[in-house]
């Protein structure tokens, strides 16, 4: 499955027509429950190291896609499953969702980005609590803590994710890419440097056909037809 996901993300990266990526599970009640612990018992330390590095690389590759990624979460998102959701730009969950990073209970730590992405998303203190205790939280608490963007009725996360993707698709695709770049790169630095990143991204949009189309559509009171040029 890991190789299939990596191949899918690489194909999306090469597809200039792609606008939004959505990740969901077709298994009822489970988004992704993390590693197979029975399999993990048969692996040597070097094999575990290689596997976790592969996960870390894949999630970082997914996170670095220039287009928005949405996780539609129903049921359990635990361990590596939560780490995958954290690597997405947006998270929508059903009220049946359960989240957790239980690795410390196995005498390890989240190794595919969990310690870093969770802390950046919900803050250092909340991240430490959830990782130190390995506590599972429900959808309502996840929404309250800012772990997910939207919580909907169980079974409706996919539909809500489609709705959000459609809203994003109506916007200028180059603008969406530059907005993501400005936010992701700017947040990792100080305010002055972040504003420089924002300026650079804004400048790249000034001479695009889409910007002119947006202004024309507004003046003519019609929906814009963006081409990504």
From TrEMBL:
Output the Gene Ontology terms for molecular function. hydro-lyase activity
Q: Which SUPFAM superfamilies match?
A: ClpP/crotonase (SSF52096)
Q: Which InterPro entries match?
A: ClpP/crotonase-like_dom_sf, Enoyl-CoA_hyd/isom_CS, Enoyl-CoA_hydra/iso, Enoyl-CoA_hydra_C
Question: Pfam families of this UniProt entry?
Answer: ECH_1
Q: Which UniProt keywords apply?
A: Lyase
Lineage top rank: taxon: Eukaryota
- PROSITE patterns recorded: ENOYL_COA_HYDRATASE (PS00166)
Give the UniProt record's GO annotations in the biological process aspect. Answer: fatty acid beta-oxidation
Any single Gene Ontology cellular-component annotation:
mitochondrion
State the family named in the UniProt similarity comment for this chain: Belongs to the enoyl-CoA hydratase/isomerase family.
Official protein name in the record: Enoyl-CoA hydratase
Gene that produces this protein: ENCOH
């Amino acid at each position: 499955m890991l190789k299939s996901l990596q191949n899918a993300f690489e194909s999306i990266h090469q597809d200039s027509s792609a606008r939004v990526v959505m990740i969901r599970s077709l298994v009822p009640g489970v988004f992704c429950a993390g590693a197979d612990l029975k399999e993990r018992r048969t692996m040597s330390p070097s094999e575990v190291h290689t596997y976790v590095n592969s996960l870390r690389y894949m999630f970082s590759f997914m996170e670095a896609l220039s287009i928005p990624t949405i996780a539609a979460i129903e049921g359990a998102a635990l361990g590596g499953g939560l780490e995958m959701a954290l690597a997405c730009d947006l998270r929508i969950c059903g009220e049946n969702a359960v989240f957790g990073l239980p690795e410390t209970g196995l005498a390890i730590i989240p190794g595919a980005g969990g310690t870093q992405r969770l802390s950046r998303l919900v803050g250092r203190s909340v991240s430490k609590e959830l990782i130190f205790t390995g506590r599972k939280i429900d959808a309502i608490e996840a929404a309250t803590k800012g772990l997910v963007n939207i919580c909907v009725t169980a079974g409706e996360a996919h539909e809500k994710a489609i709705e959000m993707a459609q809203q994003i698709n109506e916007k200028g695709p180059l603008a969406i890419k530059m907005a993501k770049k400005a936010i992701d790169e700017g947040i990792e630095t100080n305010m002055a440097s972040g504003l420089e990143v924002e300026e650079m991204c804004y400048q790249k949009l000034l001479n695009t056909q889409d910007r002119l189309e947006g202004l024309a559509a507004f003046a003519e009171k019609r929906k814009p037809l963006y081409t990504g040029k």
